[in-house]
């Protein structure tokens, strides 16, 4: 978070928007000289790398940043530290410094995409510097929105922008590009392969105008529809499961492997579309059975028709998930255009032509049953292996998208999701700011739902066979241990304080789940009362930061309930700032 | 108007309409490929295609056909020799055998055309027709390794000339007919009619379109006609030249046997609108092995018996290493003999059926539960006890073990996750 506010305000806002958590350890960099900055950051880096804290926040203010940015080495060190931390708060930074931070991060992490969002004129530099700049229209005017790549009206719309529209856009563009390359490759490969039969002299299998219209009339609509309307998962699913967003950063939609797969399909389908009709026409083999009219154009018609059918089906139906009315209309139009074009051609093409005897060709071919039979079998041979490969992959190596597409069809899962959404809606603004990240909220809601559904423990999605008793016991454990995760984060102050460092630090380790399992059911019962409470923000309690005191040995003891002042004599302060206004939700962009 | 209403009127909302199309809520079918839905389809395709293929194969078998390669007939000698078994193929449905293998012989003879004569070898092929060939009966000649689809060959004609327009040597020079466009005699250039490689290379073996019965006095000669063998469209494509100046045009070089003195009033150029062999030939084939119709008889059946056919061997195929054959064939409701269509359907049907069965078996043996969470990418790389096989509460949310992990996981510098 880069802000022009002073440190306390920034940290308070950090708490209220859960950038800093109850159990975070905060590293505050506030040094006057380069040498000290060097020392402080090195020490901070060492502490971070020790891995004792579960959540690290680095706070730096504008003056310190000004010192750091004077030396490239220090700036690099700062960025390294920032990358390894979970959150970074830069307070009191000027617009130029905001842009500088973004620029340095971009330079350091060349393969990542940076996003900057802001609502004021002082964010313009940063917005323009990042890969994706988002401006929020509203209270501070429209300057940020004007200079941004995308503008939204409220900060909370960012979630939908990224998870739903960003992801859909990525999927659509990927499929569009892949589909475009694929359709052209398939078509022109048949031309290339046909040269085997022409002595490699360069005779085109297709008549010139028909050939030129392939890209515009006979294959453009399906691929455009994919690029505009494809939805690989529902919006509600994407919002509920943020992990699905990793599809984009992992380049799952478009990579060399994906491209190679589509091209392999293109090669195979070109071979099938060309060779099957030609083989049936007797082109291959000693005693062929050539049809009455095997001149170029009718032969080309058979191959071309197969290609149009196969390419349309693959792009519009096989490789997409969202078959809407637009899909059906455009596919129908494409195929209608193909046959209509050929009918018109057959009636109106000039009689006197060389090479391609078009006039009357389609009419006689269409009346000839073997033509249609050939088209059908050639299309089948071209497309069925593709379908088979897709099923095998979806069954044996399902991707996240495959799994969630399946879950979207499962009424029980959908029902659960609806309940979650309702609960999330009920929690409202307070929940967003107070009780924690979306995932934590999900955990708490899940717990309440589990306790409701605990009688209905029968596996809803799986088959009932193969579940041994021990496995079921383990499953029960796991159920609870899942809840223990949320529990730990909320109860860190209670449990870890007494039980010591190893439990919290061991949270993700092998032991935690089993240990946590015992009181998970208790937690489930406790859950409703705690969900909407002020939680750790309550100033009276000892506070979660005391947990972190165990991890980060402090240079001198600090009373738990006093504010740590900025002007402390020690240059480097480790510790967590406690908010004096617990539970307060700040209005700055937070809803 | 009240100030409020006026304000509202001026403040036009830029919010997109809340229609299904604009809000991307179009009703859509979102099917997933599950074994339960697709495998039955495969098996059904298999069950549909295989018998269909069988039917097509049967239909193709009802076509009676005999193909005899006579390229080397001129070396056969003056007595009948048996045609080697790899040089002929026959299919006669409903007969116990295919009859005796064909035999051929060749005797020197004289070919004639409009007062022109030239020595040639006359090949006589004797073949058996064990069962009656039902009408219509077609006679084709079949050439192999003849690349009529070569790029330069297929363009090698002049449409205007073929449409009846007189064309001068200057007009044809450098055009599509090259190198078969003009003939130079001394210092003069004369246009070739018809110009181009296609016309020049016309198939000029003369097949006797009457099949003479051999040693069967009760069989009549079977007459076939060479009218109506070309496409009706082709017959409007070609028009003869009106009153051409015969001294100004020359026949193509390969036609010199028929026109030893060029075009004369006693030996005028062919009427291309009526010479259907020419029209059939001009329709260049798209494949190097092709057959072109030579004659047909749509009214009478060909009774069973032994027949001979005479062929004047004027056409040189040994130059390009190809072969020439004569084909006699009937048709079925599916057209000529084509077993490949049936074979393709049977292969597809059988493969689909067995793949469907195979995959169904594997699916039944070790099914993957739909929506199984253990396959989620963020549930991988965990020790086995953390794998979640069956959790109700985790419904659709995936693993909850690493909540803070993902947004920073992809930063290239991120490391030391807790």
UniProtKB/TrEMBL annotation, chain A:
What membrane topology does this protein have? Multi-pass membrane protein
Task: Spell out the coiled coil positions from the record.
Answer: none
Location of the region described as Disordered in the Swiss-Prot/TrEMBL record: 454-564
List residues of the P-type ATPase C-terminal domain. 145-399
The transmembrane segments are 259-284, 296-317, 329-349, 369-389
- Keyword Transmembrane present in the record's keywords: the answer is yes
Q: Compositional bias (Basic and acidic residues) at which positions?
A: 488-497
Matches recorded under InterPro entries: ATPase_P-typ_TM_dom_sf, HAD-like_sf, HAD_sf, P_typ_ATPase, P_typ_ATPase_c
Q: Which UniProt keywords are listed?
A: Magnesium, Membrane, Metal-binding, Transmembrane, Transmembrane helix
A GO term (biological process) for this protein?
phospholipid translocation
Q: Which GO molecular-function terms appear in the entry? A: ATP binding; ATP hydrolysis activity; ATPase-coupled intramembrane lipid transporter activity; metal ion binding
Cellular compartments per GO CC: plasma membrane; trans-Golgi network
Compartmental location:
Membrane
Check the record and name the NCBIfam families matching this protein: ATPase_P-type
According to UniProt, the name of this protein is: P-type ATPase C-terminal domain-containing protein
Source organism of this protein record: Linnemannia schmuckeri
Automatic annotation (TrEMBL), chain B:
Q: Which keywords, in A-to-Z order, does the entry hold?
A: Membrane, Transmembrane, Transmembrane helix
GO:BP terms for this protein?
phospholipid translocation
Main location per the UniProt record = membrane
Q: Region annotation Disordered: residue ranges?
A: 379-418
Give the way it sits in the membrane. Multi-pass membrane protein
Q: Where is composition skewed (Polar residues) in this entry?
A: 409-418
UniProt xrefs under PANTHER family: CDC50, ISOFORM A, CELL CYCLE CONTROL PROTEIN 50
**What family does the entry list?**
Belongs to the CDC50/LEM3 family.
Name the record gives this protein: Lem3/Cdc50
Organism this protein belongs to: Linnemannia schmuckeri
